Amino acid sequence: MTQKYYYIRLNLTNVLFLLTILGLYSCSKPDTAGRNAASGHEASGDQKVIMYAEFMHEVNSFSPVITTEVNFKADHLFYDDQVPASATEEDKQLAGFLSAVEKTGRGRIKAIPIVQAKSMSGGPVDSLFYQKIKNTMLEAVRSQPVVDGIYLSLHGAMGVQGMFDPEGDLIMTLREAVGPDVPIAVSFDLHANVTRRRAENADIIVGYHTNPHRDHFKTACKAGDLLIRTVLGEIQPVMVVNKMKLLKGGGMNVDFLSPFRKIFSSMKKMEKQPDVLSVSFFPVHIWIDEPELGYSTVAITNGKKDLAQELADSISDMAWAVRDVPQPAGNSPEEAVAIARDKKIARALGTVVFCDVADAPSAGTPGESTWILKALTEKGSDLTSYVSVRDAVAAGEAWQYNTGDDITISVGGKLDSVYDKPFVFTGVVASKQETSYGKTVILKKDGVHLILSELPMALKEPSDFRDLGLSVWKADIVAVKNLFPFRYNYLLYNRKTINVMSPGFSSIDPFALKYVNIPRPIYPLDKIESWR
Questions:
Q1: Is the pLDDT of residue 42 over 60?
Q2: Helix or strand or coil: residue 344?
Q3: For the chain, N or C: smaller number of CB within 10 Å?
Q4: In this structure, is the dihedral angle defined by the CA atoms of residues 118, 120, 123 and 128, taken in order, positive or negative?
């Protein structure tokens, strides 16, 4: 069958996902009034002042590539009055907070923006840039005559050169600046590593309830709502944080699939109880090599610490009970090509998606692995495939050629000398574009389309291919470099997902990671009987 039929054939997982996202956002989007409430720096006498900022980065401690200011500028880097417009356009965490300012604050809150700094995941952040953003926040808070509250949108798994727990350092520094009585609320990614320093210095910690993540707006709206009600004296939040001796467990960790589905559904029921303000579960990002690495559970109640402890313990017990549920099986690149070749109907009705598990820039890797490229070139060149390799040197070299020129070029093996190997690729220059990933060149050999770029591409959205002139419908195979978002973004096209296992910095096997600083004992690296 050569022609593809353009319709959706959903499997059970896709149906469950679509049902899950219906009615997801209970917080309204901020309108013009909400944006106006966040503009300007002068508060009226009857308004409370809340300062807000975003500093998001997810580290891979094993990556040799430093995350610099350039990486933040390629994503989001805005200051002061530039922030609200960017927040509204992005429609994620800061937009959710501004919605709470409008809906819960009802004119009683003056929200003052400081900075929005976001980068794709990567190696540790350059220490000088971290200090720059930290000082920007600190100076803004110190210069404000009155600060009644602070909201921070953080990832929770940031890494910085030469230090542990930078987000804990940031929260503690702001706490020291405003004193013990000013409430600080923080929203975290589901994979945050909640440390003792964060628990001691933040009054409110709220995390996503979804994986793949799709409640950024809702989570920040909740954090903002609790902060505003605290500032206005309507509630007295009491927070309990459990740190677990657990590093990995629970299968894929998808919120709408077993076994985590039970955990997240239980959390929703908990939050409906009287005096329960929020419960959060953090199955940690495992690619952090830090002394306090491990799962965390958080419960916040209105003045009832015993209840908060009971809820946090209950979530921890549920997570511990499913620690032995295995990860889904994966395949080598060569096996993946053979499977895709056999899936003729799947390829006719859509595409087969290769998830490059061990080289996912969204988990902080360099993005230059050549293992899938090698297998496609040697075993599957008759199939139409799209695969990306981040290689600034090779992209610059290919850029010198004209469209239609033949080229032989060595790609990969420059940043990652531990797991990756250079691969010599011969093909035709199909296109050249300046993109947000720098110089981007597509080289074509038979059906293999190699996308060379200066910066790493996670390829979370089908539009990432469309923007390059590549139709996902026409592909037999597309290789993506992220672990979760593609699983819903590609629902229209994806007929078969193959988790491709090769050597790399984002291996999902903790035994394969070269930890030096993590706490021991910890499951599954050690045999222990309790999460406590």
A1: no
A2: helix
A3: N
A4: negative
Asked whether residue 19 carries a pLDDT value surpassing 60, the answer given is no
Q: What HEC string does 400-433 produce?
A: CCCCCCEEEEEECCCCCCCCCCCEEEEEEEEEEE
Task: Flag whether pLDDT at 38 surpasses 50.
Answer: no
- Residue (of 272, 278, 253) closest to 263 by Cα position: 253
Peptide bond into 462 cis (omega under 30): no
Please answer whether residues 467 and 435 qualify as being in contact, where contact means their C-beta atoms are separated by less than 8 angstroms. Answer: yes
At residue 382, what are phi and psi to the nearest 5 degrees? -80, -10
| Nearest alpha carbon to residue 313 among 323, 302, 305 | 305
The yes-or-no verdict on residue 440 having pLDDT over 90 is yes
What is the four-CA torsion angle of 469, 473, 474, 476, rounded to 10 degrees? 120
- pLDDT, position 13: 46
What pLDDT band is residue 28 in, cutting at 50, 70 and 90? low
* CA proximity to 73, closest of 29, 103, 111, 115: 115
Which residues partner with 478 through β-bridges?
353, 386
Structure tokens at 86: 């960017």
Q: Give the span between the Cα atoms of 486 and 508, in whole angstroms.
A: 17
Q: What is the pTM of this model?
A: 0.88
At 219-232, the pLDDT tens digits run 999 999 999 999 99
Determine the pLDDT at residue 252: 81
Strand order in the sheet with 276-282: 237-243, 296-302, 276-282
Show the tokens assigned to 34: 């909400």
CA distances from 520 to 107, 136, 245, 286 (A): 50, 36, 8, 14
Whether 99 and 187 have beta carbons less than 8 Å apart is answered as no
Question: What's the mean pLDDT in 484-506?
Answer: 94
Give 359-411 as a DSSP string: S-GGGT--S---HHHHHHHHH-TTS-EEEEEE-HHHHHHHHTSPTT-EEEEEE
Neighbours of 472 (CB within 10 A): 19
| 385, 479 contact by CB (below 8 A) | yes
- How many Cα neighbours within 13 Å face the side chain of 274? 0
Mean pLDDT computed over 376-399: 97
Average pLDDT over residues 151-174: 98
Pick from 246, 244, 252, 245: nearest CA to 325: 252
Task: Let me know: does 499 contact 336? Beta carbons within 8 Å.
Answer: no
In whole angstroms, give the CA distance from residue 479 to residue 261.
Answer: 28
- Which residues make beta-bridge pairs with 499? 355
pLDDT-wise least confident of 34-48, 129-143, 259-273: 34-48
Cα distance between residue 509 and residue 287, in whole Å: 10
**φ, ψ of residue 280 in degrees (nearest 5):** -140, 150
